[in-house]
Amino acid sequence: MHLIWMALRASSRRLxxxxxxxxxxxxxxxxxxxxxxxxxxxxxVEARAEKPSAPSTKNFELSPFALYLLDRGPETLVQxxxxxxxxxxxxxxxxxxxxxxxxxxxxAQKIRGFCHxxxxxxxVAAGMSQVITFDDYLITAYRNHCQQLMRGDTVxxxxxxxxxxxxxxxxxxxxxxxLYFPENNYFGGNGIVGAQVPLGTGLAFAAKYKKENxxxxxxxxDGAANQGQVYESFNxxxxxxxxxxxxxxxxxxxxxTSANRAAANPLYYTRGAYIPGIRVDGMDVxxxxxxxxxxxxxxxxxxxxxxxxxxxYRYHGHSMSDPGITYRTRDEINEMRKTRDPxxxxxxxxxxxxxxxxxxxxQTERAIRQDVDEAIKRALDxxxxxxxxxWKHLYTTEATRVRGTSIDNGYEA
Amino acid sequence: xxxxxxxxxxxxxxxxxTVAWRQYARVRRSLPLTVTFTPLQIGLPCASFATRGxxxxxxxxxxxxxxxxxxxxxxxxxxxxxxxxxxxxxxSTTPSLYPGGGDKLSGSVSNSAGVVxxxxxxxxxxxxxxxxxxxxxxxxxxxxxxxxxxxDVAFGGVFRCTSQLQKRFGRQRVFNTPLTEQGIVGFAAGLxxxxxxxxxxxxxxxxxxxxxxxxxNEIAKxxxxxxxxxxxxxxxxxxxxxxxxxxxxxxxxxxxxxxxHTAGIKVVIPRDPFTAxxxxxxxxxxxxxxxxxxxxxxxxxxxAEVPLSKYVLPLGxxxxxxxxxxxxxxxxxxxxxxxxxxxxVVAREDKIEAEVIDxxxxxxxxxxxxxxxxxxxxxCIVSHEAPLTGGVGAEVAARIQEECFLDLESxxxxxxxxxxxxxxxxxxxxxxxxxxxxxxxxxxxNY
Lengths: 413, 447
What we know:
The complex is a heterodimer of chains A (413) and B (447). Helices cover 43% and strands 11% of the residues of chain A. By secondary structure, chain A is of the alpha/beta class. Chain A folds into two domains: 49 residues, no CATH class; 324 residues, Rossmann fold (3-Layer(aba) Sandwich), CATH 3.40.50. A six-stranded mixed β-sheet of chain A has the order 2-9-10-6-5-4, sandwiched between helices. Chain A has a two-stranded antiparallel sheet with strand order 1-3. In chain A, strand 9, helix 11 and strand 10 form a beta-alpha-beta unit. The longest helix of chain A is centred in the first third of the chain and has 26 residues. By secondary structure, chain B is α/β, with parallel strands linked by helices. Chain B folds into two domains: 238 residues, Thiamin diphosphate (ThDP)-binding fold, Pyr/PP domains (Rossmann fold, 3-Layer(aba) Sandwich); 127 residues, 3-Layer(aba) Sandwich (Rossmann fold). Chain B contains 15 helices and 18 strands. In chain B, the strands form five sheets. Chain B has a seven-stranded mixed β-sheet, sandwiched between helices. Chain B has a five-stranded mixed β-sheet with strand order 13-15-14-17-18, with helices on both faces. Chain B has a two-stranded antiparallel sheet with strand order 1-12. The relative contact order of chain B is 0.13. The chains are: A alpha/beta (413), B alpha/beta (447). Chains A and B meet through loops of A and helix 1, strand 18 and helix 15 of B. Chain A: It comes from Cyanidioschyzon merolae (strain NIES-3377 / 10D). Chain A: Keywords: Oxidoreductase, Pyruvate, Thiamine pyrophosphate. Chain A: It catalyses: N(6)-[(R)-lipoyl]-L-lysyl-[protein] + pyruvate + H(+) = N(6)-[(R)-S(8)-acetyldihydrolipoyl]-L-lysyl-[protein] + CO2. Chain A: One of its GO terms (molecular function) is pyruvate dehydrogenase (acetyl-transferring) activity.
């Protein structure tokens, strides 16, 4: 009993230490330009004013973590405050609405290119956002809209990029799969399955070389975990004890093939062989937070890489061209939505401990919905990128002449 | 996505942007734009593409030749069309790029071995993706050594090219692989070394790069480096390539030129359902490894009557799809359609009769047909979606100036993609569109 209490105190100290740095919070991270986050901020201030004397934290029991090559894992009895849970709810609901908005825009043929949605997996991005800082490096694959939000971009900026508008984070040149936020060390979305993993390993080497107190969070899907270059990276990271947290988002399907049919060993947290791993309930934002905290500490203590398998689920198909029901049943998706939805989980926790009523949550959701809709509207009104951008960013020096363009009289700068 | 047929896109886009395009060109501080299409002029040839083309070509066209295996029974191709990849697709259909009046195969089709009766029962209207499906189905049926695998092929693949195949031929012969392109291709090489005929699918040609080493270092060189003791001759790698209207950086590329540089493999790109089936079946039968790029923009857009039974078209042979006397236009895959469109425009507006050649196999390519044509016309334009520098056009142009130097009236020109990554929002500017080709034809004729 005493041990548990000590552990709780320790974790609570860490928690407040982290929170006091402020910039981790979604509200701060999202910046002041986004009205959604502004509303969230406003509401949070109001909420604080209403209940100044409310008990600050409560204990929550997490489902156990599976460990590989580790003597001890993250805590399963954790503390969280009302504000934290409300923050998670707002962040995840904003993500959900943003993805639904993207879905609608794609179906209305406003968004072109390929588009991979994150709904269902929000807890992974949201949970990690509370523990890693903008000094840590983050890189992921092409299902990356919500990582961009959690690294500090706005709904408007993200949707604008999806729409190919000039105010998008890649000036409209990248589209859905290529969102970046260098100011906050987000190395972006990468289009080729597994190709970001060696890059993430390189980021970790740089962090170690520069003696930074930072880790590289390198995310991939369960499909990518079968790519050869992933194992080349694992070897280098373990060999040189690099501070890299490999996060495998196991959403059960690599495109249209279930993980069990594509992987000889579907226990992804053990796939590092000589790298320790943890299996995490990726539908529970608190479990993600604790596991990420543990992994980050592990790396910063100089233990080398660690692997987190986030067990999660995507509600949409692989991409917009995949209806998502040819290789799984509608019942399976509905069951998952009903029993394991990450947003519902946070909501029920908030209501169960009596911190907030269902009606209040509904009001918050209505406000977020409105803010996201407005952000989308602004993104739609934004201009398209100038034609000159077509031949910019090819080399460090601007090209004086791009070969191949002479037919229409050349784009000679 | 496949509803964005280039032909329609071009017309719609010009209707919307003719003025913008002119301004855009002037901003480049370039010469005044001399392309003087009106939206109406552009609109008309597109709309009347089928009928005009058919009438003009059918009178003067060469006889199509292909060989067919008499013993093969008509295979069923009960392909469930399934939901369109770009769902909500309006099924735009355009004529196939047939020389002989498009899709008029019914009647008799000649081949070197004799005349094969092609009746209505043995022909079926097919899209490009159903033709591929039909070819795979014929191959699986006629040769037990043929295996089909790749990412998501079990439920038909993202383009539905492999629909129903697993159901018909079983999990042992048609199966999903993990997302491991290098593994898929290397695995195919091993199977081929054991005498199998693996047909490996790379989901998009853009994903072929992780498998580049296996193709270039292993598959292409196995016969050579072992002094003929081993080979991967049975390998066929299928991959959809090219622009699709909005594919962005990683779903639109045309990587064929990288492989053009690799002796030991063959590279084939069909232009329509008929050639797709014939060439794919020959690729599978071929004793050399073949990379078979499929124009994904045409999977649903192109339509033609295709024989149900097995037939093959020879590799390494070009086909004149539109005869002409004034200039030779060379392309392959989806770009053939663009050239035909441009040829129609100059025929109507400038009385220029352009000959359009589909080289079909870009490695090894049919120099004889192209050079014979250029010797007649004295002018040549090569066009492809892939970037200009080091592309197929460079090779073709170099060869033509060697063979036809004294026949040339103007330099061999190229209308290609720009030397840059395939863009997302600026796709239409990047593509070698029909109006760019028309402009180039005029430049050539006025040289």
